[in-house]
Each structure stands twice: as structure tokens, then as C-alpha cells.
Design brief:
The chain is mainly α. The protein contains 5 helices and no strands. The protein has helices spanning 6-65, 95-104, 119-125, 131-143, 148-162. This is Lipid droplet-associated protein. It comes from Saccharothrix syringae.
Length: 165
């Protein structure tokens, strides 16, 4: 028997392939949303990585133009402490008495609920406070919890207000 012409054989093969793909379609449709979401997330992560890389390069370039802070207030160094490990600038005294004084102290009158505020809650209230109010909070923070992020934020806000910001 003589083989059929090539175009007829191609058409028959194409028809069978179309039927096979049509039978697989319901299974592929179930996984389609997952595939689309997965590819969208991958693209989003690639974009975020690229943005971060560009920001890091920008930071490197701009670091040349902006001088680094000499010694941040929150930074401590070995030279700041004596041989016993005590703060060299701290007044000598009974540590138990100092702790009792700190615990017995009243909350600052400016913000009576200060000790219960989170960092973001405090940040939201800073604009309404004067330099004197901020200094009172800073003194209270230093004698009580002495949390670096709180003292740093209060110190920066005081400096900004004094410089006219």
C-alpha cells in the first residue's frame, strides 16, 4: 500500500495531538492559578532583589558624600568602662539604692503612661512635645529602662528641635 501524502499525515497527527491536549486540559486548568501566582511571586522577588542591589550601590556612592557619625550616643566602647566593668562616667554609689530610687520614681508628668508606650506610640507623640518635655522623658528613660532605641530617638528629636528642625 502506498503511503498517504505528507500533508494528510500531518493533518491526522495534528488532529490526534489536539484531542490529547483537550483531554489533559481540565487537569492543567486546576494547576494554572498556582502556576500564575508562583510566577508572579518569583517576578516580585526578583524586582525586590534588584531594587535592594541598586539601593546598596547608591548607599555606597553616597557614603562618600556624607560623613559618618563620629560616635553615636548609644555606642559603648571598652574605654568607657573601668577594670571592674562599671560605667566610668556613672557616679559611684550603692547600686541597690540606685535601683530602689529608679523604681520608686514617679512617671514623667509630660506623659504619665510613658513607661507603657511602645517605640512607635512614643514616636507618634513626639511632635507635640517641647524640648523641656523631651529632656524630662530622656532623663526618665536613662534612669529607668535605658533602652537604646528610646534614648536615641529622644536625643535625635531634641537635637532636631534645637537646630530648628
Amino acid at each position: 500500500m502506498k503511503p498517504l501524502p505528507l500533508p494528510v499525515r500531518l493533518a491526522a497527527g495534528l488532529a490526534v495531538t489536539a484531542v490529547e491536549q483537550a483531554r489533559k486540559l481540565p487537569q492543567q486548568l486546576v494547576g494554572l492559578p498556582v502556576t500564575v501566582v508562583s510566577e508572579a511571586l518569583q517576578l516580585s522577588m526578583r524586582v525586590q532583589q534588584r531594587v535592594t542591589e541598586l539601593a546598596i550601590k547608591g548607599d555606597d556612592v553616597l557614603a562618600v558624600l556624607r560623613p559618618a557619625e563620629q560616635e553615636p550616643e548609644w555606642a559603648t566602647f571598652d574605654e568607657d568602662f573601668d577594670e571592674t566593668g562599671a560605667d566610668a562616667d556613672a557616679p559611684a554609689g550603692d547600686p541597690w539604692a540606685e535601683e530602689e530610687r529608679a523604681l520608686a520614681a514617679e512617671p514623667p508628668a509630660v506623659l504619665p503612661d510613658y513607661d507603657g508606650l511602645s517605640l512607635s506610640q512614643l514616636r507618634a507623640r513626639l511632635r507635640a512635645l517641647s524640648v523641656d518635655d523631651l529632656e524630662q522623658l530622656l532623663a526618665h528613660e536613662r534612669t529607668h529602662a535605658a533602652r537604646p532605641e528610646f534614648t536615641g530617638m529622644l536625643t535625635r528629636r531634641i537635637a532636631n528641635l534645637r537646630s530648628g528642625g
